Amino acid sequence: MNREIAVFDSTLRDGAQGESVSFSVSDKLKIVEILDDLGVAYIEAGNPGSNPKDMEFFSRVSGLRLKNARLAAFGSTRRSGKTAAEDENVRSMLRAETPVAVIFGKGWDFHVTKVLKTTLEENLNMIRDTVAFFKKEGREVIFDAEHFFDGARANEEYAFQTLRAAAEGGADGLVLCDTNGGSYPFEIFELTKKAVGRFAVPIGIHCHNDDGMAVANSVMAVEAGASHIQGTLTGIGERCGNANLSSLIPTLQLKRSYSCIPGECLRRLTEAARLVAELANMPLPSSMPYVGLSAFAHKGGMHIDGVLKDTRTFEHVEPKSVGNERRFLMSEVSGRSTVLAKIRKICPDLDKESPEAKEIIDLLKDMEHKGYQYEGAEPSFELLVRRHLGKYKPFFDLEKSTIIEDLTSRNGGRSSLATIVVNVEGERRISAAEGDGPVNALDCALRRALETFYPELGRVHLTDYKVRVLNPEEATAARVRVWIESTDGTDVWTTVGVSTDILEASGRALTDAIEYKLLKTIERKFKPFI
Amino acid sequence: MNREIAVFDSTLRDGAQGESVSFSVSDKLKIVEILDDLGVAYIEAGNPGSNPKDMEFFSRVSGLRLKNARLAAFGSTRRSGKTAAEDENVRSMLRAETPVAVIFGKGWDFHVTKVLKTTLEENLNMIRDTVAFFKKEGREVIFDAEHFFDGARANEEYAFQTLRAAAEGGADGLVLCDTNGGSYPFEIFELTKKAVGRFAVPIGIHCHNDDGMAVANSVMAVEAGASHIQGTLTGIGERCGNANLSSLIPTLQLKRSYSCIPGECLRRLTEAARLVAELANMPLPSSMPYVGLSAFAHKGGMHIDGVLKDTRTFEHVEPKSVGNERRFLMSEVSGRSTVLAKIRKICPDLDKESPEAKEIIDLLKDMEHKGYQYEGAEPSFELLVRRHLGKYKPFFDLEKSTIIEDLTSRNGGRSSLATIVVNVEGERRISAAEGDGPVNALDCALRRALETFYPELGRVHLTDYKVRVLNPEEATAARVRVWIESTDGTDVWTTVGVSTDILEASGRALTDAIEYKLLKTIERKFKPFI
Predict the structure, then answer these.
(1) Within an 8 Å CB–CB cutoff, is residue A461 touching chain B?
(2) Which partner from A14, A378, A415, B226 sits 20 to 30 angstroms from A240, CA to CA?
């Protein structure tokens, strides 16, 4: 089998309906690029009619040049009693100027009479008209039959009439939605098969996970002939979420040879899922299939023994095939070659069998155990390696760094005062600064003290600040990881710090950011490293 | 349909193989009681041969009087070349003195030759002998055919021979295991159907979730005639976990009328899952089907509108049927009616057309604009509304709150010192505390000062701490939103604080958490509010 399956990601629309999910416009633009790189066919980017913030995004996203994906806007059929051209929602969708329009209409008679409060006949007209309107405007039109499966259980004939109306309007695809997420694999299979048999256009599937079966239900639909799968890359979405594409794509592609995304992209799946989770601030459960941290982590002694003899004994697919890694939780034998590759990027001459290489691997494991993660924060890793090898002379010594915070004084909101003492080759500087919070005060004081020695720091400023609580169940005593992104106008670099103390973690990332800038400036001026 | 399905929970055995899961003996005893109360038929409590800590537990658990469940110990077949009676693992299992023995044996020829390094014939003898041995000792014996589905794909005849050997040994049940968690719903259905047709004893199913389909695969097995389902109540387990019983039980019971647990117990499902998650220190993802905090949480305006008209529009089952709750989330995509519904939950007498209602809606918009997000942090919203309506007298006045942080002093890592002055009805208390970071110090100092006035705060502790940077491009001057989750052992509540100063944001969420607890305690003691 090698049937092509079009992957349709709705992280930015249905995913944004998940509890606690809220994307900024810049988050959304980054997610579009990640999904496009991953090779999905469609990115559903928002509902311009219901969310004004989405309009700003649509105007900015048109500047991106996408390699694989087509952008889609989502909206409902026209209202009863208006023409499509008069309808405000329809017009908002048009203004979004996406090549693809996803029109959703009611597929369940109960919803038509109870929620829309219109007639069954008028609902069919609404579907047919709205689809036809967007076709006339030159859009690719996908029809989402909302509650199709609940609808078919109640009134199968009517549910199929709604599909027929969309097909008559010229829809390019008909998507069967399990909106309430409570359907059974068998039902999905049978009804999808009927739809595939009755219509010439591609049939799609859109499952929610309220009974924990969204992935399997989508698989059943594909087995019944569906050729378009809707979901979200990390499974986020209203209530219990949408079908998790990071489970669905490799399952279809590796197990049944369907073609969902380009083969070489599958190896980026884990990275893409983790980046999207980061932007959504919804950390992936470590047990998430294929892409979770524990997905290929072996803990039981018998399991580890088996995997050491042959990985197929306890792994359903090869971890690398989805860009993930095998881990042995009891005996840390993992990842050595990856780490060595990183170290040799910094010190190309280092022998991989040398004691130094071994020490750095141990050091790295120790730091990771403490919560450090150097992926995306390579400057901090480079500083770690250089410090360890003694090939690094710090540009300054931070003798003292104190923060005083008075939460009850509200003098213009600047309640934080940082004082810093630095020592540069025997010369000391004391500085103090107020700030919007303690980290800001610290940043200002530190750069104020150092600028007299290193005027090149005048161009450096911080452009991003992120905080992740690592073991939230420890509550306020939890370990936190802080990332700081900096720029000098030309280069951009990210550093990381970890501590149970958020100020200390921030201080470490800040210090690394400044050290790294100085290292790169001096290095360029005087000599290449090693 | 009303077929009885025996529920077999393996939280304490397979669940304990999940990454970061580790139970104390007292945790295990509590979990046995929770599962027994929930009405499961079997509790697999450990592997006495591989884990010496389990022996202590088995000797203590025999003191519990269980109402519904039978306890099971888990272990492998005898080794090749020994009799069952000589085998150390077998003897450990016997010493556990459980009424049920679960014997696992290899169902995949590849494992027999590659891992056990014995002959296919000897593996069959090992299965037959070991089962017969425990039957002779008077135990109920369940045979787990490890890797049955992978085995059947490779050598179907041999996989069935392993089942046959167990049946000949006298097994009371034969369980088909998808140990690597990579099987397909159709395969599971077909092979289970064959097994049901060939053996007179009950057939069970044990699925892992490596392809995200463990629940659906278990459902398929039941539809094919299996009458025994193995999993873990919250889905924890090796790698991606086991079939999640908190999804599987209500799906089978509510949708297909199978009888899994006593009807009245189903309403305790959410509570039981949350307690077990607490003991496992593995917080439930909020999107978990049926039992998650968001499982019946509605965010989109159209969804809320539909549910207000008829809950069936966007709910696949009634939340109460599994002991969960419907929630309407507040966000930019939800409408005025949601907010009004929330306000009226707090003040039932408030006229929705009154100036106060309008003021609160404006206030809410203003707070959201500042970065507050009350969805999931309703206690902070309730306090906001009460404060605004003047219907709230604070329980304490925070006169002074200062933090001193010395980032360069590393005295045992406790670099933060908080001092607090509170005033409760004219009486002042000063307290100070060190902490793992400034927020922890603040939390300790505040509760130390207040506990003399309000001893009920002694039971309160924080269980989750989350930080979201709202405008990361402002870097260290960015606005941050802090969520704090608290519990007093019975209730769980979440509060929110926002500021450019992370300490101030944390302080606000902390103060709200304490105020809310006091409000609820006093309210219960003296009078209903309004």
Answers:
(1) yes
(2) B226
Tens digit of each residue's pLDDT (9 = 90 or more) over B462-487? 887 888 777 766 666 778 888 888 88
Helix axes B214-223 and B185-198, enclosed angle (nearest 10): 30
Helices (H), A199-254: 214-223, 245-250
| Alpha-carbon span B464 to B282, nearest angstrom | 12
Q: What is the pLDDT of residue A333?
A: 36
B217: closest CA among B188, B196, B240?
B188
Domains and CATH numbers, chain B: 6-279 (3.20.20.70), 297-389 (no CATH), 397-529 (3.30.160.270)
Averaged confidence pLDDT in chain A: 89
Cα(B451)–Cα(B456) distance, integer angstroms: 7
Q: Across residues B228-255, what is the average pLDDT?
A: 97
Cβ pair A157, A200 in contact under 8 A: no
Average pLDDT of the residues in A102-124: 96
Query: Strand A480-487 relative to strand A461-469: parallel, antiparallel, unpaired?
Result: antiparallel
What residues of chain A lie within 8 A of the CB of B219, using their CB? 184-185, 213
pTM: 0.75
Q: Which of B76, B185, B506 sits opposite A216 (nearest CB)?
A: B185
Please tell me chain B's helix, strand, coil percentages from 3-state DSSP, rounded to the nearest 5: 45, 20, 35
| pLDDT at A326 > cutoff 50 | yes
Torsion of CA B48, B51, B53, B57, to 10 degrees: -30
Locus of tokens 């001096």 = A522
User: Positive or negative, the Cα torsion across A365, A371, A374, A375?
Assistant: positive
**Residue A511's closest CA among A378, A379, A375, A368?**
A379
Find the residue in B nearest to A189 (Cα).
B186
Long-range contacts, A278-285 (Cβ 8 Å, 24+): A278/A466, A279/A23, A279/A27, A279/A30, A279/A31, A280/A11, A280/A15, A280/A18, A280/A21, A280/A23, A280/A27, A280/A234, A280/A236, A281/A20, A281/A21, A281/B468, A282/A18, A282/A20, A282/A21, A282/A234, A282/A236, A283/A468, A284/A234, A285/B285
Looking at the DSSP bridge assignments, the partners of residue B397 are: B423
Residues 6+ apart with CB under 8 A from B459: B488, B489
Beta bridge partners of B469: B480
Pick left, alpha or beta for residue B416 (phi over 0 → left; psi -120 to 50 → alpha; otherwise beta): beta
Token code pair at residue A95: 């203004």
Judged by CB atoms closer than 8 Å, whether chains meet at B463 and A443 is answered as no
Q: Measure the CA–CA gap between B204 and B227, rounded to whole angstroms.
A: 6
> Residue A200: helix, strand or coil by DSSP?
coil
How do A203-207 and A173-178 pair as beta strands? parallel
- How sure is the predictor about A334, in pLDDT bands with cuts at 50, 70 and 90? very low
Q: What pLDDT, in 10s, does the model give residues B330-366?
A: 655 555 666 777 787 778 887 777 888 888 888 887 7
- Give the rounded percent of residues in chain B with a pLDDT score beyond 90: 61
Q: What is the CA radius of gyration of chain A?
A: 27
User: Using CA of residue A262, residue A263, residue A264, residue A265, what is the dihedral sign?
Assistant: positive
Q: What is the ipTM of this complex?
A: 0.76
Of B305, B329, B440, the CB nearest to A476: B440
* Yes or no, beta carbons of B502 and A437 under 8 Å apart: yes
Q: Does A470 touch chain B (CB under 8 A)?
A: no
Query: Please, which residues have CB within 8 angstroms of residue A1's CB and are 6 or more apart in sequence?
Result: A256, A257, A258
Q: What is the dihedral of CA A212, A216, A222, A225, to 10 degrees?
A: -90
User: What is the helix (H) or strand (E) element at residue B184, kind and residue range?
Assistant: none
Q: Are B373 and A281 in contact (CB under 8 A)?
A: no
Restricting to B residues 381-440, those with a Cβ less than 8 Å away from any Cβ of A are 398-408, 413, 415-416, 435-440
Task: Measure CA A182 to chain center.
Answer: 26
